Amino acid sequence: TPEQKKTLVTAFQSLGYTVAMTGDGINDILALKHADLGIAMGSGVAAARTVADIVLLDGAFSRLPGVVAEGRQVLANVERLAKLFLAKTVYAITLAVTFGALLWPYPFLPRQLSIIDGLTIGLPGLVLALLPNARIYRPGFLKRAAWFCIPSGLIIAGTVMGVVAYAYLVVGSPVAELQTIAVITLTLSALWVLVVLARPFTRATVAIVI
After folding, report:
1. Per-residue model confidence as pLDDT tens digits over 39-87
2. Closest CA to 18 of 42, 53, 55, 56
3. CA-CA distance, 173 to 51, in Å (whole number)?
4. pTM to 2 decimal places
C-alpha cells in the first residue's frame, strides 16, 4: 500500500540511509515524495512524474549509474572549487585589513591581482569543474571547506606579509620592488593551494598545474 511504501522509505532514512524510490503508479506517489531521490518512469502516471526528482523518459534503469556518476562529479568538483575560491577570499581579506591597519602601501596593483587570480584560480577552476570525479558524497561540506580555506588563506597572507615586511622595514625596497616581491610570493603560494587541490594527480591536473 502507499502507506507501507512510505514507511519503508522513512524507516531506512531513520537509520541514516539516503533513500531513492522508483515508481510509476498512483500508489508510489507518497513514497516518491518522501524519498531523498524520487525516480519516476516516463510511462508512469502524470502525478508520479510531477512529484519525482528525476523522470526516466525511456523508462530504462540503465540510465541511473550515469546519473549517479554525474551527480558525484558535480558535488565533488564544486567542493574542490569552493576551497580554491574561498582560500583566495580569506587571504585577500586578511591582506587588505592588515595593510590598512598598519597604514603600509598595498603591495599589489589591480591588474597584478587580476593576472594572479586568472592563473591560479580562473583558468584552473574552469578545467577542474569539468574533470571526472567519482568520489562519493560525504556530509560536512562547510566544515571541510573551513578547515582547508581558513588555515591555507592565513598561511598565504602571512607569507606575503612576512616577505613584504622584510623588504619594507629591513631592506628598504622601493615600491616597484615591493610589488614584484609580493606578486611572486602570492603567485607561488596560490599555486601551492592549487597543487594541493589538484591531487590525486592525473595527466589533466598535472597539465593544469604546469
Report:
1. 999 888 999 999 999 999 988 888 888 888 898 899 999 999 999 999 9
2. 53
3. 66
4. 0.76
